Amino acid sequence: MSELSKLKISEARDALKKGEVTSVELTQACLSEIEKADALGAFVHKTPELAMDMAKAADANKAGGDLNGIPLGIKDLFCTKGVPSQAASGILEGFKPEYESTVTTQLFADGAVMLGKLNMDEFAMGSSNETSVYGNAVNPWKRGNDDAQLTPGGSSGGSATAVAADLCLGATGTDTGGSIRQPAAFTGITGIKPTYGRVSRWGVVAFASSLDQAGPMTKDVRDSAIMLKAMSGHDPKDSTSADLAVPDFEAALTGDIRGKTIGIPKEYRMDGMPEEISKLWEDGTTMLKDAGAVIKDISLPHTQYALPAYYVIAPAEASSNLARYDGVRFGHRATLDAGDGITEMYEKTRAEGFGNEVKRRVMIGTYVLSAGFYDAYYNRARKVRALIKRDFENVFADGVDAILTPATPSSAFELGAMKDADPVQMYLNDVFTVTTNLAGLPGIAVPAGLDKNGLPLGLQLIGRPWEEGDLLNTAYALEQSLQFVAKPNRWW
């Protein structure tokens, strides 16, 4: 039975349609694996009864979509009706929404089964899944015989762990500065951040509204295409949702990239880049060339300013978005002393409810938005963002179809390794990924190889806006050449 949880979405879909397996059997297999995997900290709100009810309904519904009967994990950032949705924060303790996010509504309408809610960094602020009120999510991969626990990346660390450890067939993630692609690379799975506006943000707890975008985290490119189609579409409840038709992303997976132009940005050749990552990037470039693509050196001159701009804009938007958590309407409320007024209630509630990283970013955001510093920091960052976006527009206008880069500057590091480090060291994990969020472009991470310690490394492809089908096909061609099949040894 446990072998069923190892199936890819496409394999399970075909087996379900042929009657070789039932959704109840698939769901039971995943629930069994979840119960054995508490050491990984991936699932934080398990919903076995709901999952079995959904599985039975899927088995009875022979006319369901591609995800009919497929067991998925849902990141705790997505509001799910009647199920705790805390964004991994103490300030939302006990919050059970009376509504369903658009993304989960669409997945469930397609027949998907929810196994439970997945761990994450608090309010999606983090690159290691160490800021969660639930505790750390743990990477299922280990360094050789070393027992040190490793980060699965963040903020979608629970989603990455659950998919990599075969606890579910796929999972939802969100990506504000790399939070789908970085954990996907750290755990040897595939993750795509679509174009900003392709997937509705309604019912997804906000971090930075102009950067946040939901996407799938899966075992391969085909599964990402299947999930992305179900998640995408115009939503009148989200003013940033694009009113565009949703292509059949799976149908685009021909593997034929002959004549496509792949850009290699010189600015991504960072000082101190590990030789293994540099070689992987070169190997990936060669594979795409061998598949018929034209390789072109390109320049994205404002890349060096991306991280500073991101870490001004994202905290500024977070400061505004998190102002609503005040202990009045829902979630945690601090115990007050006699004589305390509403100001003291706000202060104590937010001090108790928010973790240190969230407090840090809220304070940074409030600072850069303050009257004396708005122009010096926030407005300047917005101008840099426009220049970064223009860099990509110029490259695409010059005939480039996709851009190949590393996904991360390293493989997974030890949990706690950066606990006492300068926070900027943690922020550097996003160095290859934040540009796509600032420019609103689609980006995908695919597993590309193992480092000397046997840990996964990923490559990233960045595509033209709204051309996820073409991007997925290029990733599919790369995946076919890479032939990454390694899995973590089950130690949990």
From TrEMBL:
Looking at the record's lineage, which domain of life comes first?
Answer: Bacteria
**GO-annotated molecular function:** ATP binding; glutaminyl-tRNA synthase (glutamine-hydrolyzing) activity; transferase activity
Q: Which UniProt keywords apply?
A: ATP-binding, Ligase, Nucleotide-binding, Protein biosynthesis, Transferase
For biological process, the GO terms are: translation
**Recorded E.C. number(s)?**
6.3.5.7
In this chain the Amidase domain maps to: 25-472
Enumerate the Gene3D superfamilies for this protein.
Amidase signature (AS) domain
Active site per the UniProt annotation: K75 (charge relay system), S155 (charge relay system), S179 (acyl-ester intermediate)
> Which SUPFAM superfamilies does the entry link to?
Amidase signature (AS) enzymes
Which Gene Ontology terms of cellular component type are present? glutamyl-tRNA(Gln) amidotransferase complex
Q: Which Pfam families match?
A: Amidase
Reaction catalysed by this enzyme = L-glutamyl-tRNA(Gln) + L-glutamine + ATP + H2O = L-glutaminyl-tRNA(Gln) + L-glutamate + ADP + phosphate + H(+)
The record's annotation in HAMAP family points to: GatA
Task: List the NCBIfam families hit by this protein, alphabetically.
Answer: gatA
Q: Which family does it belong to?
A: Belongs to the amidase family. GatA subfamily.
Q: Give a short account of what the protein does.
A: Allows the formation of correctly charged Gln-tRNA(Gln) through the transamidation of misacylated Glu-tRNA(Gln) in organisms which lack glutaminyl-tRNA synthetase. The reaction takes place in the presence of glutamine and ATP through an activated gamma-phospho-Glu-tRNA(Gln).
Q: What is this protein called?
A: Glutamyl-tRNA(Gln) amidotransferase subunit A
- Can you name the source organism? Octadecabacter ascidiaceicola
Q: What is the lineage of its organism?
A: Bacteria, Pseudomonadati, Pseudomonadota, Alphaproteobacteria, Rhodobacterales
